């Protein structure tokens, strides 16, 4: 029979674990690479930067797909961060639930708006 020493650790709060930490690092890396790609394409383009430059930048289907992936990554990145803040600092369960629902609705609305704007370019 195994002997246990010390008290058992009670883990509560914002979903402690490697999965959330790793997901935020991966989404941050994807957003950073996308930003560098867009900056490089804009800096290497000739002429003034206007609507035509932006429309040309997002014209290829692969760029639209990459931008869509970045919008989803941004929304998930923000969700993990805000969920952790709400779980760590808001103690009443009802208030925390309302804030989490508001955050989800807000992020889905922002992501939908961003995708709609990107698809119009």
Description:
It contains four helices and no strands. It is elongated, with a radius of gyration of 20 Å. The longest helix has 29 residues, at 61-89. The protein starts with 17 loop residues before the first helix and ends with a helix. The chain is mainly alpha-helical and 121 residues long.
| Quantity of strands, as a count | 0
User: What is the terminal-to-terminal distance?
Assistant: 67 Å
Coarse structural class: mainly alpha
- How much strand content do the residues show? under 5%
What series of H and E elements makes up the topology? HHHH
Shape: elongated
Topology (elements, then pairings):
Elements: H1 18-44, H2 51-57, H3 61-89, H4 93-120
Short structural description:
The protein is an all-alpha fold. It is built from four helices and no strands.
Q: What features would you highlight for this structure?
A:
4 helices; 75% helix; 121 residues; mainly alpha
């Amino acid at each position: 029979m195994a002997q246990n020493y010390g008290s058992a650790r009670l883990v509560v709060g914002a979903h402690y674990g490697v999965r959330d930490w790793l997901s935020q690092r991966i989404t941050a890396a994807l957003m950073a690479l996308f930003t560098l790609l867009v900056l490089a394409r804009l800096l290497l383009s000739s002429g003034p930067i206007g609507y035509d430059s932006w429309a040309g930048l997002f014209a290829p289907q692969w760029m639209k797909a990459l931008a869509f992936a970045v919008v989803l990554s941004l929304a998930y990145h923000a969700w993990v961060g805000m969920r952790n803040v709400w779980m760590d600092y808001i103690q009443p369960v009802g208030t925390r639930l309302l804030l989490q629902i508001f955050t989800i609705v807000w992020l889905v609305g922002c992501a939908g708006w961003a995708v709609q704007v990107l698809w119009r370019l």
